[in-house]
Amino acid sequence: MPARAPKGLALYATVICLLAVAAAVVSFVNGSWLGVVWILLAGLTSNMAWYYHRRRTAQQETAQQ
What we know:
Layout: H1 5-29, H2 35-64
Helix pairs in contact: 1-2
């Protein structure tokens, strides 16, 4: 797997997380409980972004040694 892939995946997951938070806000403002699903999706994608960020950092540290 190329070294750039985790950075790209972390970026995509962060963008999806921000979009999910925006969708949750819009849903709650409109009085819909569907916002709960968007909050859960935001939590999942934030964990994915954190994982891929840490994975890339670990790969860079390993490459420097």
